[in-house]
Design goal:
Blueprint lengths: L2 H5 L5 E6 L3 H5 L1 H11 L10 E6 L10 H10 L5 E3 L8 H24 L17
Parallel strand pairs: 1-2, 2-3
Family: Belongs to the small GTPase superfamily. Rab family.
Keywords: GTP-binding, Nucleotide-binding
Organism: Hypotaenidia okinawae
Length: 131
């Protein structure tokens, strides 16, 4: 399958649907599960997902901003942005947000690792002796 090598090693996932296509919005949960499975995400609750509602340049929406934001809150408190690839609205902002999410996760991991690190070079001497 092409999915496994394509997803493997991903640091973030941009879940994208079309605001003018309800079915694409309703597929978000399936796409998220598929990504977690094929990317072999070890900790899905802390993996950085960013949700994008694309095609905001279209006049007839089938998915409201509020509905998309509610989905994001219910499914992991993911950031939500609305974009238009056609007219380049918020495209750079979306990728900047993805980078922020990745860096935040890495910072949390580093913080956790620091608490579990042993300094092999420190010379601590015990205050007690047997003689």
């Amino acid at each position: 399958s092409l999915r496994t090598p394509f997803y493997r090693g991903a640091d973030c996932c941009l879940l994208t649907f079309s605001v003018d296509d309800r079915q694409s919005f309703e597929n978000l949960s399936n796409w998220q599960k598929e990504f977690v499975y094929y990317a072999d995400v070890k900790d899905p609750e802390h993996f950085p997902f960013v949700v994008l509602g694309n095609k905001i340049d279209k006049l007839e929406r089938q998915v409201s901003t509020e509905e998309a934001q509610a989905w994001c809150m219910e499914n992991g408190n993911y950031p939500y942005l609305e974009t238009s690839a056609k007219d380049d609205t918020n495209v750079a902002v979306a990728f900047e947000e993805a980078v922020r999410q990745v860096l935040a996760v890495e910072e949390q991991l580093e913080h956790c690792m620091l608490g579990h690190t042993i300094d092999l070079h420190s010379s601590s001497k015990s205050g007690s002796s047997c003689c």
